[in-house]
Design goal:
With 70 residues, the chain is mainly alpha-helical. Helix content is 39%, strand content 0%. It is built from 3 helices and no strands. The chain has helices spanning 13-21, 35-39, 46-58. It is globular, with a radius of gyration of 11 Å.
Length: 70
């Protein structure tokens, strides 16, 4: 059974699964990691980063270091 995350399904099943396998299951957990680190994870590409950034911004959060694709 795959790990559960709170991430939007818009990022895709592989991205959701790989984030969970790397210990990222909440939007809050993404505030402790940079986009560069996330891009090094299999299944995480620029589209997933953009979508996650939109979701973080909607929650008043940012990636570590205030990063984002903007």
């Amino acid at each position: 059974m795959s790990e559960q995350t709170e991430f939007t399904p818009r990022i895709g099943k592989v991205a959701n699964r790989e984030l969970a396998l790397n210990g990222y299951t909440t939007y809050e957990s993404l505030t402790h990691v940079s986009t560069k680190q996330l891009l090094a994870i299999h299944g995480i590409g620029p589209k997933a980063i953009r979508i996650l950034d939109e979701e973080l911004t909607a929650r008043g959060l940012r990636f570590a270091g205030g990063e984002g694709p903007r």
